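Usage

Read records sequentially. Each one opens with the input sequence:
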Amino acid sequence: MIQFRMLNRSKGPAMWSPRTQNDRMKFSEEWRLALERTPNIDFLAGNGFGLIVEGKRVVGVKTALGIEIKAKAVVLTNGTS
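and closes with the structure output:
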C-alpha cells in the first residue's frame, strides 16, 4: 500500500470509507503467489474451446489444442492477451 485515507470522516462512522492507493504490480504478484500456494488448485492458461458435459454437469474443459481437462469444479475467467 502506498497511501491510505479514510473518506467521509466528517460524517458518522457508518459513512466512513477506507481507500488505499496500491502498487498494482506488487498487489498482482502477491495475489498470484498466494493463490499458487493454495493446495489442490491448479491454474492453466490457454484458450478454452468447449465444455465437457455429462448429464447436466460440467465435468471439464476441452482446449483449443484438443486437450481434455476433467475436474470436479471448473472456473472460467475472461482474460486479455
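Summary fields computed downstream for this record:
- The first helix runs from residue 24 to 36.
- The helical segments are 24-36.
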